[in-house]
Design a protein that fits this description.
The complex is a heterodimer of chains A (about 140) and B (about 160). With about 140 residues, chain A is mostly helical. Chain A has five helices and three strands, in the order αααααβββ. Chain A is flat, with a radius of gyration of 26 Å. Chain A starts with 8 loop residues before the first helix and ends in a 9-residue tail after the last strand. Chain B has about 160 residues and is an alpha+beta fold. Chain B has one domain. Helices cover about 30% and strands about 30% of the residues of chain B. A six-stranded mixed sheet of chain B has the order 1-2-6-5-4-3, sandwiched between helices. In chain B, a hairpin with a 5-residue loop joins β7 and β8. The radius of gyration of chain B is 15 Å and the shape is globular. Classes of the chains: A mainly alpha (about 140), B alpha+beta (about 160).
Chain lengths: ~140, ~160
């Protein structure tokens, strides 16, 4: 390959000025389009059939799949629902529940160890990186 | 006129290799010339640059990102587009594209053939594509699975 290429100053300037947010949005828009296109292929659906399911025109679907269009959240939700896929794992909020055995707290030698039946019991949940607590009935949980 | 294939390292990545064409006597590629000639369309150029970056590093050059049938049937000539900007390419597969030039498609035309400037760019890409495709068929140019190229000593690309 040649080494004598002189890159365009316009191209160099554009690459230097594109911000990370713009790159991220473009990349993720295209990745979502990829996921939808892959799902259509797996399900054997044409763009025409998909357009009909969504109540949109073929050209709109083509533009969506090209990564050109900025989807609204409602459109994303509709597409995911039509295809039976999860574009964003919103339904999964990981929750830690500890067993009854794990609630045994070993105390100092002067006191007898045992399970604490706490009046108000909380389940610890992690939601989007922050720990939160929610009231839970009829279970023993490790509360912090 | 001879030409050579030049890797555009600004865009190439793990998912795809992005190449352009340097004509004999030039010191920049058709892609560089495209950016220079259309610098007034900043928004379109920025979007096209962002998409090429995404293709190289994240998505590959999937066919859904391009307008097909811009050249002769089966020659692989496609257009990368945003709004009314068109950039003509030869798409080999998800991991390899050769980018030519393009331009702004005026709103009063429906096909590139109606605009002399755009038509010239598209025809140029079609001619380049024919030469590259011939070299691949005759095994003077090999495209590996990751998009990298191997040229034989007999490779002669001309338009």
């Amino acid at each position: 390959m040649t080494t004598r290429r002189k890159p365009s100053k316009v191209l160099t300037k554009i690459l230097a000025s594109i911000d990370e947010d713009k790159l991220r949005r473009t990349r993720e828009r295209m990745l979502v389009a990829c996921k939808i296109a892959d799902t259509l292929e797996v399900k054997g659906l044409t763009q025409k059939e998909f357009a009909k399911m969504l109540g949109k025109s073929e050209s709109e679907i083509s533009e969506l799949l090209s990564g050109n269009r900025n989807f609204t959240f409602d459109t994303l939700s509709d597409m995911a629902h039509c295809l039976g896929i999860d574009l964003f794992p919103l339904s999964f909020i990981p929750t830690k529940r500890v067993t009854k055995e794990d609630t045994e707290i070993k105390l100092s030698k002067t006191r007898k160890s045992g399970i604490y039946d706490m009046g108000e019991v909380y389940t610890i949940s992690q939601s989007f990186g922050a720990w939160r607590t929610y009231p839970t009935s009829s279970c023993l949980s490790l509360a912090i | 006129m001879n030409f050579e294939i030049v890797e555009i390292e600004e865009f190439s990545g793990d998912k795809a290799k992005i190449y352009s064409i340097m004509l004999e006597g030039d010191d920049d590629t058709l892609l560089d010339q495209f950016f220079d000639e259309n610098q007034q369309y900043e928004e379109e150029l920025e979007e096209i640059a962002a998409r090429l970056l995404a293709m190289g590093s994240s998505t590959g050059c999937r066919i859904q990102f391009f307008k097909e049938h811009e050249g002769a049937p089966g020659d692989g000539v496609v257009a990368l587009w945003y709004k009314r900007m068109r950039l003509y390419c030869l798409r080999f597969d998800n991991t390899c594209i050769f980018i030519g030039s393009g331009g702004y498609k005026p709103p009063d035309i429906s096909a590139y053939q109606e605009n002399p400037l755009l038509n010239a760019k598209a025809q140029q890409m079609r001619t380049i594509a024919a030469s590259i495709n011939k070299a691949i068929i005759e095994k003077d140019l090999k495209v590996f699975e990751d998009g990298t190229l191997e040229k034989s000593d007999f490779l002669n690309l001309e338009i």
